[in-house]
Design brief:
This protein has 233 residues and is mostly beta strands. The protein contains three helices and 16 strands.
Amino acid sequence: MGTAVVAKEMSVKKVVKKHISNNFDKKTIDAKFKANFNNGKINQSISVYMKMEKDKVIWLKGTKFISVFKAKITPTSVQFYSPLEKKYFDGDFTMLEELLGTEINFNQLQNLFLGQAILDLKEEKQAIEIVNNSYVLNPDVQSILFDAFFDIHPGHFKLNSQSIVNSAKEQRLDILYPSYTVVDEVVFPQEIKIKAKDKKKFTQIDFDLKSVEFNTEINTSFSIPNGYKRIEL
């Protein structure tokens, strides 16, 4: 989708309203991505299957010839196992926070996949400016803990990018959406690039959408096999 639309002067309230009103309104997602994961030690491309029941569950399976991992995330829990390493995790969002370098909850993770802001834009008073033909929002009074920046497309009002920066901990999370596609009148991210770094490590995960269907019957059953070793964080 091109950026032929010109960003006109608009109030913060109106931009935020348009962004929120364009939120995903289907019940389920059944998607396939090509994903590349790189943390400096591991650099590999895999296929990732995602099934999502909005506001209830995100189910993920990564494969490369064989199953590399499976995960099931609900508003209260994160479950994950790796057939390769014969290890599993069953707990809270600590595992994802380790991976992304910032606190994250279910709703924020869901929004990350949908091209929506991971913070509540209505909660804080925002400053707005037009930069490179898109609306850049950031809270007038930045949090003591972090700075946040949201770059919103002037055509479909989904995100071009969002960034959370914690200067004290030297942590930064950037989520970029270089392109979107339209399926069943839904504007859905075609590409998602996640970059997380702190002073010790970095993680980059690039998702490239291969197919997606909405409102289909999905199976999110999940069970950790016997004999796997628990991952302790």
